[in-house]
Design a protein that fits this description.
By secondary structure, this protein is an all-alpha fold. It has helices at residues 3-6, 13-16, 18-21, 34-54, 59-65, 69-97, 117-127, 135-145, 153-174, 176-210, 214-219, 221-270, 279-285.
Length: 286
């Protein structure tokens, strides 16, 4: 299919994909470029801490700036997950657009066979300039390219199911980094709690050794409460970040699973239900 045949296609992956618009190589399906998302997260983290450092001191700024290094890492990982989910959401919307267009000619009497397979390929290229980048079109093109070697409708269905299982596996893998961060963020909070409690215990021990009267002990308890603030606020922030991201990831994962189910239905209605095996093709397979 040459460029002139696809220049008017409504779907142009390399112009519409968010990663390509940012100037990086696009990942397949709804997967996200790890280094791009990490770089954006780093920039967002630096911007956040720059803004917080110049604002008047408040509870939020103290939580971010005065509670140890675990807060910084938790914020960075939180931004990284956020960027990944935003990019995945954008890529999912683009993938879904392919389902709006039919992959077969508009003639209701059309049946798919090895003789009419080229018409389906032409229709797909009329829909998308780069159809292999769209999951549903990639499935169909894979099945169509082998149609002339097949002898039963179930063979086509089997190929579509096999490619569908591959897409489902890639879908699960695309959430691997987020799952790792959602494990790491609460752990960072607990590490901050341990560090804060260690500071508090050490400060309290020094306080008892250096102060002999009650008034001196009460006046020096600020050092102890400072460590307790670190202990509890690091865990609080980490758990809030993890909770929000877990709910967001669950919603995104559900949306992608629903899309994969819609791809299965699309292939069934557009391809499998329209296939006709000609008599001479059947006899050739005997």
């Amino acid at each position: 299919m040459n460029e002139s045949d696809t220049k008017n296609a409504p779907l142009r992956y390399y112009e519409m994909d968010i990663e390509n618009r940012m100037g990086v190589s696009s990942s397949t399906g709804t997967s996200c470029n790890t280094w791009l998302s990490g770089l954006i997260a780093l920039v967002l983290t630096v911007i956040l801490y720059t803004v917080v450092s110049v604002l008047p001191t408040n509870f939020f700024s103290m939580m971010l700036l005065e509670r140890g290094p675990t807060q910084h890492a938790a914020i960075f990982f939180g931004f990284w997950c956020t960027v990944i989910l935003i990019i995945k959401s954008s890529k999912l919307r683009l993938q879904r657009r392919a389902l709006r267009y039919a992959s077969i000619p508009s003639d209701h009497q059309f049946v798919l066979s090895s003789q009419t397979a080229d018409q389906v390929v032409a229709q797909i290229y009329n829909n998308a300039e780069d159809p292999e980048r769209f999951l549903v079109y990639s499935r169909i093109l894979t099945a169509i390219s082998n149609l002339k070697n097949l002898g039963r409708v179930s063979d086509v269905d089997e190929i579509l199911r096999s490619v569908g299982e591959r897409d489902e596996s890639a879908h699960e893998t695309s959430f691997g980094l987020i799952n790792g961060f959602l494990w790491a963020i609460p752990v960072l909070g607990f590490i901050g709690t341990v560090l804060g409690l260690s500071v508090s215990i050490a400060s309290f021990s020094s306080l008892l050794d250096s102060q002999s009267d009650i008034s001196g002990i009460v006046g020096s308890l600020k050092e102890v409460t400072s460590g307790l603030s670190t202990a509890f606020e690091t865990t609080l922030l980490a758990l809030i970040i993890a909770l929000v991201l877990q709910l967001w990831m669950t919603a995104q994962k559900t949306a992608e699973e629903r899309f994969l189910d819609d791809c299965n239905d699309y292939c069934m209605k557009q391809i499998v239900s329209r296939i006709k095996i000609l008599p001479y093709e059947q006899s050739r397979e005997v």
